[in-house]
Specification:
Shape: globular
Low-confidence stretches: 139-143
CATH superfamily: Gcn5-related N-acetyltransferase (GNAT)
Number of domains: 1
Structural class: alpha+beta
Mean pLDDT: 87
Largest sheet: 4 strands, mixed
Number of helices: 3
Helix content: 10-25%
CATH topology: Aminopeptidase
Distance between the termini: 40 Å
Bound molecules: coenzyme A
Strand content: 5-15%
Oligomer: single chain
Radius of gyration: 17 Å
């Protein structure tokens, strides 16, 4: 499966929403018995060091946990692995147009097994409480 654009509003990042979106995608893969998920991740903090560091070294340090990237580090934490770099993936000055192809292999994948449910039955309702203890969203009443 190819993952196209998941995004959490900046005011709500770091509160567990992105984690739920990723887990919902993994759930679809398990239910449809798909082999894996590939997506383009924007290394969005690369611009901070781009003048002195090649993107290959930046991504390597993020993978090794020596450096935190607002986007890629969270995806790696959820089990994605870096596959390769993609130049000119998207017009985005934060990553200098770079993306990282990230892959999640479905550990439950069984070759030849039929999907558990047809696609139209896949959507589920996720209910959750946002994690607390973080700054209130910009402009929220009382903040
Ligand atoms: C990537 C993105 C979706 C993450 O959303 P988010 O709501 O901030 O993510 P969460 O707060 O749920 O964190 C995701 C996971 O990273 C973990 N995490 C948070 N900070 C971390 C850190 N410093 N180091 C490692 N892991 C960290 C969280 O604990 C969570 O995992 P868990 O639920 O298993 O504990 C969000 O940053 C975003 O919208 N980015 C811009 C759009 C984009 O580029 N999307 C990807 C391309 S399609």
């Amino acid at each position: 499966m190819y993952g196209v654009e998941s995004c959490v509003h900046p005011d709500y990042r770091g509160r567990g929403v992105g984690s739920l979106l990723m887990e919902a995608r993994f759930d679809v893969l398990r239910r449809l018995n798909l082999r894996g998920l590939i997506a383009g991740s924007i290394p969005m903090d690369y611009h901070n060091v781009a003048a002195s560091m090649a993107v290959e070294d930046y991504v390597r340090e993020v993978v090794e946990g020596k450096r935190f990237d607002t986007n890629l580090s969270k995806q790696l934490h959820k089990g994605f692995q870096v596959h390769n770099l993609i130049p000119e993936y998207i017009h985005d000055m934060r990553s200098l147009n770079w993306a990282v192809a990230i892959v999640w292999d479905n550990p439950a994948y069984e070759p030849g097994k039929l999907a558990e449910a047809p696609l139209f039955e896949v959507p589920r309702l996720y209910r959750t409480q946002l994690r607390s203890g973080l700054p209130s969203p910009t402009g929220a009443a009382g903040s």
